[in-house]
Amino acid sequence: MIQNTFKINYNTRHDLSSPQQTEGPQKSPVDIITDNREPKSPEIIRNACKLFSVLSKQDALHLFIRAKDGLYSNKDSPGLNNLTRKQYYTRLRNLVDVGLIKKDGDSYTHTTFGSLIYQNYLAMMLHGVKNLKHIQMIDALKETQTLSNDDVTNMMNVVLK
């Protein structure tokens, strides 16, 4: 089977608009992004940086989390979120621009991409931050090498439930 993939040599410039044909099993976009052996295109890296940049702002992260269940927006919304009108709409526009949320009538909701990011990464990260002291204790116990790997795994499963 022939598939379209990008062959990238980071030392030279390439036209990414014309993919090269290669032989091999077809990979899904998720497989390509998560495969550490697959070279990442500069465009993927640039888009990931934009995503991290938007979510690194506390206000935008808060709005993104609230949009999970639908973030109703009206003239009082900026003040209710302790933001100026400009800050509020700038953060929403940034979240829309990177594809995490969409406007749906009078509210903002997660896009499919936003739901994937929230469920697979953000929720896990927030849970980890919430349990950081327990995770640090597990790391300390691992360093002492007094527990078996199975015991450490069981302890992590209990802490991360």
Question: How would you characterize this protein structure?
Answer:
The protein is mainly alpha-helical and 161 residues long. Among the domains are: 47-118, Winged helix-like DNA-binding domain superfamily/Winged helix DNA-binding domain (Arc Repressor Mutant, subunit A, Orthogonal Bundle), CATH 1.10.10.10; 131-159. Helices cover 55% and strands 11% of the residues. The chain contains eight helices and five strands; from the N terminus they run E-E-H-H-H-E-H-H-E-E-H-H-H. It has helices at residues 29-34, 42-55, 58-66, 77-80, 85-97, 112-130, 132-144, 149-159; strands at residues 2-5, 20-23, 71-72, 101-104, 107-110. The strands form two sheets. It has a three-stranded antiparallel sheet. The longest helix has 19 residues, at 112-130.
